[in-house]
Amino acid sequence: MSKTIKVLSGGGFITKETRSETMCELREEMSIGSNASAAVGGVEVTSSYALQEGDIVAFVNNDKTGGSTRTVVVPYYPGSHTYIIQ
Asked: How many helices (H) and strands (E) does the chain have?
């Protein structure tokens, strides 16, 4: 059964329909490497996390080198604040 989620892409969230049941399956579907952390609603989750309808998902790559550090503040969605630091 497919579900609709929102995924951080560039500077905002895009709506995505997926048949993935877990975060691990979503990583594979989206070709996201295992070196990226996954968060739902601003809380880090494991690969076994069961995706829910309406989840707000962000992947953060943790292997940044060089350049300056920046903080990305994600817009408020009812029920959660999401802050991602790269």
From this structure: 1, 7
Give the count of domains, the chain: 1
Q: If DSSP codes are grouped into helix, strand and coil, which group holds residue 23?
A: helix
- For 31-57, write each residue's pLDDT tens digit: 998 888 999 998 999 999 999 999 999
Domain that holds residue 41: 3-85
End-to-end Cα separation, the chain, in angstroms: 33
d(CA 82, CA 80): 6
Phi, psi for residue 8 in degrees, rounded to 5: -65, 125
- Distance, CA of 26 to chain centre: 10
Q: Is 30 helix (H, G, I), strand (E, B) or coil?
A: helix
Q: Which CATH number belongs to the domain containing residue 8 in this structure?
A: 3.10.20.30
